[in-house]
Design a protein that fits this description.
The structure holds two protein chains of two kinds. By secondary structure, chain A is of the alpha/beta class. Chain A is 47% helix and 11% strand. In chain A, the strands form three sheets. In chain A, strands 3-2-4-5 form a four-stranded parallel beta sheet, sandwiched between helices. In chain A, helix 8 packs parallel to helix 11. The radius of gyration of chain A is 21 Å and the shape is globular. Chain B is α/β, with parallel strands linked by helices. In chain B, 52% of the residues lie in helices and 11% in strands. Chain B has 15 helices and eight strands. In chain B, helix 8 runs antiparallel to helix 10. The chains are: A alpha/beta, B alpha/beta. The interface between A and B is large, with 52 and 51 residues. The structure holds iron/sulfur cluster (2 copies).
Chain lengths: 443, 379
């Protein structure tokens, strides 16, 4: 019998602050160079290390990505532009969309018509697709390019390699910008980077509670400043406040959506042009209490999830045994963070065990996995994970779609499948009456 | 060509060959899934490294493990061989840090058809900075340690040097064979050359060397006939282990005179420089070999494209066929640039997509039209 208990809900107080940080980051992209700061192109990794170059803004590919994703026509047009240049549908839809934006020239132009060009490309490489895309960006703009492997295998050689790469990156940035690298800023930024990811893991830990204080839709939105600018003090402060607020929500039994008939985990990126799909289970009283793509933006005590559970990393690097005095100390700490604490995007080999531990640890009744045909990295190992989930008695639904290409998702088919899945779990839709009584009124 | 049948027999009977080798020597056989695995280490340890290959038959046994509609047929075909038990004589399965497709093959294989020894060696993508060279050497050393712990025998420097010599000889002989194809009328066809390389991937390299020496001395006596006007083609791709593909192209009136893919030149290009620490020397050869797109992530330099142009010049090609495994995203990424660079250098290209089997019907007209265009341009 499903749990039809009605829980209290409440607005998330730090939501506004998170949104403001996201907006100010976007503005900063167009202001940084005028203020004498660097503008770097790439998906964000190693914020703490980049911080050693002074204040900077990072473009994260297309700043207007969100706007693009909410305009289906424009999104499709952008894909078509990339396809016309030979970047066919086999390749990642996210990168195809960014390439389309690049070729249209609206990637780095704001509403006032201010156009910027990054000083260089710095791309952490968890997935080769990102590196290949950045290569095209660098070629297209004719700007210097540094791509940095983030090994997903943990060995003394890979740890040394990442530290050596970081050293090389610093020398390279000094050379191409003529600026001096500041070790104090590195130590500060790197400490913040650890701290921010650990704080987010502690927040996710709290979502094991019944009812869960936050759901996947909240978490995807709340993690944005962490993804973009986790070297900054104001961002760390946001997550400190968020942690306290989440603790309070748990203490008061405040739930994410009001009902919790069924706890779900979401695998893979949700379709970015249809984020509302994350709220769809609430029609049945279901709620997503986590997702692998949420959990990768956090630092864990271990990634050996074959043998151990998800446990948040110690709150500070010092608590994890790091001494932070020199550049080498900071870089080694970052290598530890990225190889041993932060789940790697391309982890094929442990995915099955990771998914099972995620479902069990967050008391999930079922797992829902989005299959994005273009993204070879997050989807690798998914079918093995499904087999393992089912072996562990966790019902699993796969839905085919796309993270970024609206043409690849048939909304009606996906929702039909979802309805049938919920029916199989024995969950009818929550009645209209209950909906009117205030169910699901929070963001 | 002299004795090509022998190579063909070995490729067709590769499972039997490995099993007989095992029975004869009492050694262990190790399958590998990526050509970045430093095979010399396994050879020096007295094992027989063999490249895992598909059988080019449609199948659905892998559908529960790897999505058929998004992953390349090559990785699924290899896994199918493992799940069907065709490689049940393998004592080990190894891979190098490769694309996500093949990493799934490795993972699913080990989950459902476990072997005694398995190892996945990390090989950086940004392969051309000093840090990467050090990393590959350290990873090779780590792998050698694991192999010797498994076999219970240390791998001596002499054994490593001996293995490197055998492999270097093999690479040199294959290159000689390929260089013969620079002639106006090459003494061997593209399909034959591919067969020779494939045989080397699944047999004892010392034996392959002996065969190659015989073959090369036989070819030395071949008298080269008058020039004809068959277009000279370069074959580009990721994994082309299907002789039928090359044979089919040639049957339409072309010469495949050289190639750039994992079962062709990219496999045997570049030798181990025999000095200093042997494991580092072996590792260096893998850093310096022509890269696949997975390892070619720099800008503005694109090493693979430069290498392709070199091959095109030396083998005087008039056109390029790009055989694209469906769903292979990394090669797809390079396609627009590859096509435009070839075009800028006066080399027209044609992209052909392939899955498990040769789509002869679909390809025929396109290839014929392409060959006609080349011939018109030549005239
Ligand atoms: S992880 Fe997936 S979606 Fe992201 S860049 Fe890589 S392939 Fe694209
Ligand atoms: S064909 Fe492409 S996708 Fe398939 S294994 Fe080779 S590189 Fe990977």
């Amino acid at each position: 019998m499903p749990n039809y208990q009605r829980y209290e809900t409440k607005q998330i107080e730090c939501w506004k602050k998170a949104e403001e940080l996201r907006r100010s980051h976007r503005r900063h992209i167009f202001e940084a160079q005028a203020q004498g700061e660097l503008l770097i192109h790439g998906m964000c990794y190693f914020h703490g290390m980049l911080n050693g170059m002074g204040d900077y803004a990072i473009t994260e590919y297309t700043p207007y990505f969100r706007a693009l994703m909410s305009d289906t026509k424009e999104a499709i047009r952008t894909h078509e532009i990339a396809e016309a240049r030979g970047f066919g549908q086999d390749i990642c839809s996210s990168m195809r969309c960014h390439l389309g934006a690049l070729f249209q020239g609206f990637g780095l132009i704001n509403k006032e018509g201010v156009r910027v060009k990054p000083d260089f490309v710095f791309q952490g490489l968890p997935c080769t697709t990102l590196a290949k895309t950045s290569q095209i960006y660098a070629d297209y703009w004719g700007i210097p390019y540094f791509t940095m492997d983030i090994p997903s295998q943990d060995s003394p050689a890979t740890m040394d390699y990442l530290v050596a790469e970081l050293q090389e990156a610093i020398e390279w940035m000094e050379k191409i910008t003529g600026r001096e690298f500041d070790d104090e800023r590195l130590l500060h930024g790197a400490r913040n980077e650890w701290r921010g990811l650990s704080l987010f893991a502690q927040i996710l830990d709290l979502c094991r509670a019944v009812p869960s204080p936050l759901d996947a839709r909240h978490l995807f939105a709340l993690q944005v400043p962490l993804v973009l600018v986790r070297q900054r003090d104001d961002v760390i402060q946001l997550y400190e406040e968020m942690l306290e607020e989440t603790k309070e929500r748990v203490r008061q039994g405040i739930s994410a959506r009001g009902y919790e008939t069924c706890r779900l985990i979401h695998g893979g990126f949700p379709p970015m042009f249809y984020m509302g799909i994350l709220r769809y289970p609430s029609q049945f009283g279901g709620v997503y209490v986590g997702g692998d793509l949420i959990h990768i933006y956090a630092a864990w005590d271990t990634l050996d999830l074959k043998n151990r559970d998800w446990v948040a990393a110690p709150a500070t690097p010092e608590e994890a045994g790091h001494t932070l005095r020199t550049r080498e100390d900071a870089l080694r700490m970052l290598a530890d963070l990225y190889i041993r604490r932060r789940p790697h995007m391309c982890r094929v080999e442990a995915k099955a065990e990771e998914y099972v531990k995620l479902a069990q640890g967050w008391k999930a009744d079922a797992f829902v996995i989005h299959i994005d045909r273009g993204c070879k990295n997050l989807q690798a190992g998914v079918l093995e994970a499904k087999l393992s989930l089912e072996e562990a008695g966790i019902p699993t639904l796969l839905y085919e779609g796309s993270g970024y290409d609206p043409r690849d998702l048939s909304e009606s088919q996906v929702l039909d499948r979802f309805d049938a899945f919920m029916e199989n779990l024995g969950l009818p839709r929550i009645g209209e009456e209950e909906k009117r009584s205030g169910y699901g009124v929070v963001r | 060509m002299t004795g090509v049948d022998r190579y063909q027999q070995i490729v067709d009977g590769r499972h039997q060959y490995a099993q007989e080798w095992k029975a004869r020597t009492g050694g262990r056989v190790v399958g590998y899934l990526c050509t970045y695995v430093p095979e010399e280490v396994f050879y020096a340890a007295g094992t027989l490294p063999v490249r895992v290959m598909g059988s080019h038959e449609t199948q659905d046994i892998t559908d529960r493990h790897i999505f058929p509609t998004m992953w390349c047929a090559y990785c699924r075909d290899c896994l199918a061989q493992g799940l069907q038990g065709r490689y049940d004589y393998l004592d080990g399965l190894v891979s190098a840090w490769c694309c996500q497709h093949i990493r799934q093959t490795y993972d699913s294989w080990l989950r459902h058809a476990p072997v005694e020894f398995s190892y996945q060696m990390y090989v950086p993508n940004s392969l051309y900075r000093p840090s990467a060279r050090t990393c590959v050497a350290a990873e090779t050393r780590e792998m050698a340690r694991a192999v010797s712990a498994w076999t219970g025998r240390p791998i001596s420097d002499e054994a490593l040097e001996g293995a490197a010599q055998v492999y270097n000889t093999n690479r040199r002989l294959l290159r000689q064979l390929y260089e013969l194809r620079q002639a106006d009328i090459p003494p061997i066809s593209g399909a034959e050359a591919l067969t020779v390389v494939l045989a080397g991937m699944v047999m004892d390299k010392a034996e392959h060397n002996r065969l190659l020496e015989e073959t090369l001395s036989g070819l030395g006596e071949v008298s080269v006939g008058p020039t004809d006007d068959l277009p000279r083609l370069l074959l580009l791709g990721s994994e082309i282990d299907d002789r039928e593909i090359v044979g089919f192209v040639e049957s339409l009136g072309a010469r495949v005179v050289t190639d750039e893919h994992c079962n062709g030149t990219r496999y045997f290009w570049g030798e181990v420089t025999l000095n200093g620490d042997m494991l580092s020397a072996i590792a260096n050869r893998y850093v310096d070999r022509p890269p696949c797109p997975h390892k070619d992530v720099d800008s503005p330099q694109h090493r693979r494209l430069d290498h392709v142009l070199d091959l095109a010049r030396q083998w005087r090609v008039q056109g390029a066929l790009i055989v694209q495994q469906k769903f292979c995203d990394l090669y797809r990424y390079e396609m627009p640039l590859m096509e435009s660079i070839l075009r800028d250098n006066g080399i027209p290209s044609l992209m052909l997509e392939v899955e498990f089997t040769l789509p002869a019907g679909q390809w025929r007209t396109r290839i014929e039209a392409f060959l006609e265009t080349i011939q018109q341009e030549v005239l």
